[in-house]
Amino acid sequence: MIDNSQKVAGELNISFKQVSAVVSLLDEGATVPFISRYRKEVTGSLDEVQIATIRDRIEQLRELEKRREAILKSIEKQEKLTPELEAEINKASTLAELEDIYLPYKPKRKTKASVAKEKGLEILAKRLFDLESLDVELVAGEFINEELGVNSVEEALQGARDIIAEWVNENQEARKKMRAYYEKEAIIGSKLIKGKEEEGQKFKDYFEWEEPLSKIPSHRLLALRRGEKEMILALDVAPPEGAAVALLENLFVTKETETAQQVKLAIADSYKRLLKPSMETEMRVATKLKADEEAINVFAENLRKLLLAAPLGQKNVLALDPGFRTGCKVVVLNKQGKLLHNDAIYPNEPQKRIAESGAVVKHLVEKFEVEAIAIGNGTASRETEKFVKDLGLPKSILVLMVNESGASIYSASEVAREEFPDHDVTVRGAVSIGRRLMDPLAELVKLDAKSIGVGQYQHDVDQNALKHGLDDVVMSCVNSVGVELNTASKELLSYVSGLGPQLAKSIVTFRNENGPFKDRSSLTKVPRLGDKAFEQAAGFLRIQSSKNPLDKSAVHPESYGIVEKMAKDLGCTVNDLMSNGDLRNKINLKNYITDKVGLPTLTDIVDELARPGRDPRESFEVFNFQDGVNEMSDLKVGMVLPGLVTNVTNFGAFVDIGVHQDGLVHISHLSDSFVKNPADVVAVQQKVTVTVTEVDINRKRIALSMKSDPFGKAPAKKSQPKPKRQDEKASEGDLQHKLSQLKGMFNG
Q1: Could you tell me the CATH number of the domain that includes residue 645?
Q2: Distance between CA 695 and CA 709 in Å, rounded?
């Protein structure tokens, strides 16, 4: 296998030694979190993002090498591989270059050119292509052969032009120049397919649309492609045809002769019939990959913020899944999230059994010493919130709204059925709402990340790439927080470095059969959990009940000896070292440096001793929506309201203001300053203050602003480039409407 470390090092501006070390560790089975946390000396303290980038690029290059090997074998099998051709293939640095070289040798079905060659017209084609000075018709007449199917001069010339067209299409230089031209000048355009006006209203903005392919944002490209997939829009990707053909003519027609006219005809045919479709396909693939990458990055960043949302912590929680006709499902969970009780109440329309429902809630609060009440933010949420707040419960009891996105999917999942086989989906959904308040990360890992709904066009991007990207985020979050070995679900454990679903299941089974793990070392007793898995996982697992205080920390067992030596040198215990800052300050780290352990690891160890098992998530803060603003009908333009960011996209952010319909803060209204990337300004779960700028109840559209003066006339500091299109007179209100439409599309 070719070592691509040097190439990757140059691309990422990282030393060869660092890249080579990362590649070796990955090939040995190490995970990204483990390498970034416990192998800093080896990698030069590369972070997770850098390590993941190295991993992905190495995988790409290895796929390229596989393709190179397949091409060499194919040409060798044809007995056409020369030393010069082999050198050229080995020199190719991109897949496009490789495929261009291979194109003339690629096995083809019957083509116009191959038919013409069978008719003996290749010699004529060569003479024309060489721009010889000759009487074209006279020479072409020499190739008339009725037995071979060449019955006229025109048939001979047409066959020769077919061969030339294929030569032009397979010319490496022509393809390279055309590819560069497409990348720079191609226009993507869309038109409505006749008869689809009514069916395609959500794509109305794109019935007549045109803009440079190089500038189209990812969300718009994915919208156009969805319109095409749903057979509403017809797409075209190409630069001006005349200029493209002229580019080819300049390459092949170096003098004006009678034969040049035939070559020009062949070039025009080659472009229209062969090169244009080929280049359009390439551009579609390349831009789709880029759009997918951007969309996945948006989703991943949103997911990270959601997973790392501040946990309420271990509290006795009463959770409510609100409803009207079907009532509100009530569950009570203990501090560990165990279901203690479930019930149903009917405080809302149409029953309005307020007194009876209130008595049930008060009784449960008192009986189970409830410390917080979680209310799902779906149907009837604000009405249920008002009902609870009007009960006169002790002020120490927090009443909090919880985003229930995905709770219904969890409640119907195999995971939920396995955990609660004797309860229906309504009970499971309420449990999920309560647990999500206590520990969002532990609960959300039970869901397929795509169902959480914090991305853009997640159903339109490459699903394998999406899963790969989101799994990276979940693993990163789980391992950065750490997992309590004796209480974690198998879903949570499966994301711990080095474990996976099967080992996670084995751990839970072993725990159920043998009781809680007493220390980290006893993890090795789990069947099929070998030394490598233990090495990768141990540092991210916590055992609060262990006699060894280091088992509660992120100090890896391989470093326990170092900590014990530090304590021994200071004449104290490890516990003393962890509880006494003065003792830790006396540690001279240089005394513990070895050929394998350096200052980065030693610094991490001392930091961890100071705050063992610290949770990197922010402290929990109570958030409440504006009282009296419960429905869209309560909104008025100009209202200033508290809100919670529910989704961030390339074109803005969606904000929950407590009216059962998220509002859109368009990118131009996120800040008084110019904003290029919304993620630089806002994040999922962020608490914000917004101004209502437009309300359309019929279409359920709410436009919001985070500007200090959203209705001001002052010019923006920097205007955004506008796409080329036929109608560029859209008002600000139209823009809000159009961008709001996008939400419907990418959540579809």
Answers
A1: 2.40.50.140
A2: 18
Residues 15, 60: one domain?
yes
42/18 Cα distance (integer angstroms)? 7
Q: At CA 361, angle to CA 359 and CA 366, rounded to 5?
A: 95
Contact 287, 225 (CB under 8 A): no
Q: What is the per-residue DSSP string for 334-384?
A: -TT--EEEEEEE--STTT--HHHHHHHHHHHHHHTT--EEEEESSTTHHHH
Asked if residue 255 and residue 165 are part of one domain, the reply reads: yes
Using alpha carbons, select from 465, 491, 468 the residue that is nearest to residue 478. 491
743 pLDDT band, cuts 50/70/90, is very low
Q: Distances in Å between the alpha carbon of 407 and those of 83, 376, 411, 614?
A: 62, 9, 6, 28
Question: What would the pLDDT profile of 187-232 be if each residue is shown by its tens digit?
Answer: 999 999 999 988 888 899 899 999 999 999 888 999 999 999 999 9
Tracing tokens 């020479």 back to the chain, one arrives at 139
Query: Rounded to whole angstroms, how far apart are CA atoms 140 and 160?
Result: 9
Same structural domain, 354 and 290: no
> What does 439-495 look like in DSSP terms, one character per residue?
-HHHHHTTS-GGGG--SSSTTTS-HHHHHHHHHHHHHHHHHHH-EETTT--HHHHTT
CA dist list (Å): 352 to 318, 342, 356, 384, 658: 20, 20, 9, 11, 21
E-strand stretches of 125-207? 187-192
- Which residue, of 389, 409, 438, is where some domain finishes? 438
The structure tokens listed for 503 are 């080992």
Whether pTM > 0.90 for this model: the answer is no
CB atoms within 10 A of CB 54: 27
